[in-house]
Each structure stands twice: as C-alpha cells, then as structure tokens.
Amino acid sequence: MDIGIHSLRTFLAVARNRGISRATKDVHLSQPAISRQILALEESLGTPLFIRKGRVLTLTEAGRILQQHANRVLQILSEAREEIDGLKGLVRGHLRISAASTIGIYMIPDVLGAFKDLYPGIEISLDIPNKERVLRAVQEGTADIGFIGPPVPDSELAMETYLEDDLVLIVSPHHWLAEKDHVTAKLLAEDVFLLREKGSGTREIMEEELRKAGVSLRHSMELGSTEAIKRAVAANLGISIVSSRSATLEVILGHLCAVRVSDLNLHRPIYMLYARNSPLSPAAEGFRRFLSSRPGNPPASAASLDIRGDSNRS
Known about the structure:
- This protein has 314 residues and is an alpha/beta fold.
- The protein has helices at residues 5-17, 20-27, 31-45, 61-88, 101-106, 109-118, 131-140, 201-212, 226-234, 244-253, 282-293, and strands at 50-53, 56-59, 93-99, 122-127, 145-148, 157-171, 182-183, 192-195, 219-222, 240-243, 257-261, 267-275.
- Strands 3, 4, 5, 6, 7, 10, 11 and 12 form an 8-stranded mixed sheet that branches.
- Strand 8, helix 8 and strand 9 (219-222) form a beta-alpha-beta unit.
- Helix 1 (5-17) crosses helix 4.
- The radius of gyration is 32 Å and the shape is rod-shaped.
C-alpha cells in the first residue's frame, strides 16, 4: 500500500466538502486530478471510500476509518515540522559538550550560561574528562563539540581556536620561589612537582616545554585534578604549573603565588573541535556561531596576576 501525504490531504478535502468540485479550492487541483487521486486511493486500499447520494459524496465505513487516521497522520506531521522548526530557531534541542577538565571548570560554564540565557529551551550537558576522553567522545558522536588545549592531528576533526590561555608556575606563599620575580626552568628540577594524570592537556604542554628546556623532574607526585593540585601547593607540598585562569582567585586571596618561568613558552590556544564529516545539530551549530560572534576573551597571563599582593613588582 503506497499512500502519499498529498493524496491524504486531497481525500480529507473531498470528505470535508462532501464533493470534488468544492474541494478544488482547498487543494488547488482540477476535478479530474482529484478524481484520479481518490480512485488511486481506493485501488490501493481495495475498497470504496465514498458513495454518491445525489450531488453529495458520503464516506463509507472504510472512508470514515481512513479519515480518522489521516487526520492523525497530518497532525503528527505538523507537530514534527513545528519541532524541527523549533530546532532551527533554537527553541528546543540538546547541546552535548565535552571539555577537558581545566577548560570545562574554568572557561566554559560562563559562556554556556550566556547561551542558555538566550536560548532557554536548549538542554545542555557538560562532561568534564581529560583530553583523551574528550577526543573519544567527539569521534564516537557522544559529544557534539569538544574543547581541548593541545592540538591533535586528526583529519576527521575540525578545529577552531576558541580562546588564548597561559600556564603559570604556582607555589605556596611560604615557598622560597615566592620571593622571585621570575625563575628559570632548571630551578624547578629539584623541587617536588605536582602533576595532573596522564592524558591531561596541561601536563602534556608542561612536560613538552620542560623537555625542550632540558629539564628532567626528579621528584613528582600525581594528583587527579587541578583543585587538588592547588590545595597541595597551598599547603607547600610541592609546586606545579596550571592554567592562569584556574589560579587567579587563589593568587588574589594570597593562598598561592604565581611566578613567571622566563625560558618556558607556556602560552597555549584552546581549541573547539567537532566531527568534520557529520553535520552539527542545530543546537550545536547555534552554539558554535554564538562563540564565533563573541569578542575574544583576553588571556589571563602570569603578568596579570598579582604576585604576593605587591603591585610594585613586575
């Protein structure tokens, strides 16, 4: 049985007008064209849909059954169209974001909140794993958009720069390095260095820069989050390198000191990535456009952090 939407609309117009001639204005078809569609419907269903009583067409029992179901079909189609139009207009939808932990905690929530204010009907989910799991989520389609620090050479992923960030050395206010305006990387080798887990983008950048500087860490401790690292550094259990955005509050409050490492390049772009060969959902595409339309966020650099509250030190 092959019944098209246009045939159903024509059938309902004839049933509503109880005749073919009066239905022509509703469906903008000629009488012969309408007659052919009704005949094709009856042949497809194997039963008459109308009986003629004088000049009036009356529905048969089969016709009344088809009328009920045809109205439901067209109503469902109309609701589906409204929902799809709602997606296009960002009235509703689901946005799935996966962001590496430092980015997800310190750089994404504010912009997601601004997007939610504009489009309250969009449901937002934010997953905050490490870089490797962000890549896997985007590759497998469980996340629409991902955010990472180090770039990845993956031809299946499109990458756009989201913002710029700087990493900084953080130490306890009671640590001897806290009195320094800046230090060299070699001074870090003998200290206990607090590291994020393997797979962390921040750790990858830090280790690469230390390797370029010829510095090998002799004492290290691995912790599972930036928050844990900051608390351990504040307790003078070691030193670490973190995103400047993650340490700004603690530096302002005097719980940590930010020290510049003069011979390490700790500047990094933050990338937004998504599947290159799969179209983004309307909600995800709307969010991508929303980000591109916002003025760039200035990086929070080590130079912008107040070291031990002494504004006279440069």
